[in-house]
Amino acid sequence: MNSIRPLIPILTAAGILLAGNGLQGTLIAVRGAQEGFSASSIGFMGTAYFAGFLIGCLIIIRMLRAVGHIRAFSALAAIAASATLLMATVVDEGIWTVARFFSGICFAGLFTVMESWLNSGVPNSARARVLGLYRIVDLGAVTGAQFLIPIIGPEGFPIFAVMAMMISLSLVPVSLADRSNPVPPDDVKLDLRRAWQISPIAAIGCVAIGMTNSAFRTMSPVYAQAIGMSVADVATFVSLSIIGGAMIQYPLGYASDRSDRRTVLLATTALALAVAIILMLAGSSDRLLNFALIFVFGAFAMPLFSLSAAHANDRAKPNEFVMINAALMLFYSFGAIGGPFAAAAMMEWYGPHALFSFTSVIYAVFIVLILYRMRKRPAAPSDERGRFTALLRTSTIFARLVPKPTSRHENETGNTETGHEKSRNS
């Protein structure tokens, strides 16, 4: 506990920011629909956010080296708060799109700063506990923040003011409770070609999952409103998908540790596809049915990124753990840029249930590719597989927070080297 106590301020700041970011993503869709913005416009705002997020991931390390953690965090938080207030001041599709783009840059940078700070301050013996706390903070903050929308109301200035306050308040624990200013992390090697060579199916999968998850995260509030849900129901709808993914992720990971991961990835994708088809065809405005279906959909759709990354890590060399996960994060971002706008265009043409038509097509193509790769390449030997780890998609350096245990084969032979050089952690 003593090793974790100094990190509590950073975890507090992370919770505030994760809540603000999760709140903003849902509010933009809910309020935009109320303002009469088209589905395509709302989808393009999601595309702008993820484009900004990708840029933020690429430039933040240089910013940290230039000005340090505290100054970078302060500057990015100020810009993110200002962008939030700008959306409250000027209700315009173009202005909101620009604001979301800069929000994407800022949140990518803010998450990178926090995760770099956590990584520098936690010993390897406490990494599992810190990572567990971080996931709990993420789940609690993002799901809890959704219900601020019905409590405060999506209309008017107050909800935007609360978001700006949350972003600004994240500065308090960072500025007052931690006097350190860690050494900026080394640049993450981003070798996309090598990542593709290690596991084409993981690279393709992360693009596909980026398309579907970003489309769902951006457009699911629009879908929920379009089928007649209240604002409170929309918040519940979004939260249930997140909770479903969190609850089932570790059982799926446990199963993948004991078999060909591609088999588990295939089965999970097929189940996500099946639920998406039911949502597409049901055409029901029944609130409880949609809640149940979206919980099951989230349970199978949300863990797909971590399962893909786990498969790639089984194929990577021992010193490629951070590189492969950073590269997969970029592949995910590439897909996330295109997903919201493509899904929104289909929703405009064919109605709200086309969100799940879009998702179903992507999953179906992914399933075909998994089957093809399973015929082309044998499964990784069981003694070379690491343990499944649920990965957050908050920054390209998140993988550095993950504990670095040896593979099962190394444990059995008594080789106890740890660190990036011996990691096969997945």
UniProtKB/TrEMBL annotation:
<protein>
    <submittedName>
        <fullName>Predicted arabinose efflux permease, MFS family</fullName>
    </submittedName>
</protein>
<feature type="transmembrane region" description="Helical">
    <location>
        <begin position="353"/>
        <end position="372"/>
    </location>
</feature>
<dbReference type="GO" id="GO:0022857">
    <property type="term" value="F:transmembrane transporter activity"/>
</dbReference>
<feature type="transmembrane region" description="Helical">
    <location>
        <begin position="39"/>
        <end position="61"/>
    </location>
</feature>
<keyword id="KW-0812">Transmembrane</keyword>
<dbReference type="InterPro" id="IPR047200">
    <property type="entry name" value="MFS_YcaD-like"/>
</dbReference>
<dbReference type="InterPro" id="IPR036259">
    <property type="entry name" value="MFS_trans_sf"/>
</dbReference>
<keyword id="KW-1133">Transmembrane helix</keyword>
<feature type="domain" description="Major facilitator superfamily (MFS) profile">
    <location>
        <begin position="198"/>
        <end position="426"/>
    </location>
</feature>
<dbReference type="GO" id="GO:0005886">
    <property type="term" value="C:plasma membrane"/>
</dbReference>
<keyword id="KW-0472">Membrane</keyword>
<feature type="transmembrane region" description="Helical">
    <location>
        <begin position="264"/>
        <end position="282"/>
    </location>
</feature>
<dbReference type="InterPro" id="IPR011701">
    <property type="entry name" value="MFS"/>
</dbReference>
<feature type="transmembrane region" description="Helical">
    <location>
        <begin position="159"/>
        <end position="177"/>
    </location>
</feature>
<feature type="transmembrane region" description="Helical">
    <location>
        <begin position="198"/>
        <end position="216"/>
    </location>
</feature>
<dbReference type="InterPro" id="IPR020846">
    <property type="entry name" value="MFS_dom"/>
</dbReference>
<feature type="transmembrane region" description="Helical">
    <location>
        <begin position="130"/>
        <end position="153"/>
    </location>
</feature>
<feature type="transmembrane region" description="Helical">
    <location>
        <begin position="322"/>
        <end position="347"/>
    </location>
</feature>
<feature type="transmembrane region" description="Helical">
    <location>
        <begin position="73"/>
        <end position="91"/>
    </location>
</feature>
<feature type="region of interest" description="Disordered">
    <location>
        <begin position="403"/>
        <end position="426"/>
    </location>
</feature>
<dbReference type="Pfam" id="PF07690">
    <property type="entry name" value="MFS_1"/>
</dbReference>
<feature type="transmembrane region" description="Helical">
    <location>
        <begin position="288"/>
        <end position="310"/>
    </location>
</feature>
<feature type="transmembrane region" description="Helical">
    <location>
        <begin position="97"/>
        <end position="118"/>
    </location>
</feature>
<feature type="compositionally biased region" description="Basic and acidic residues">
    <location>
        <begin position="407"/>
        <end position="426"/>
    </location>
</feature>
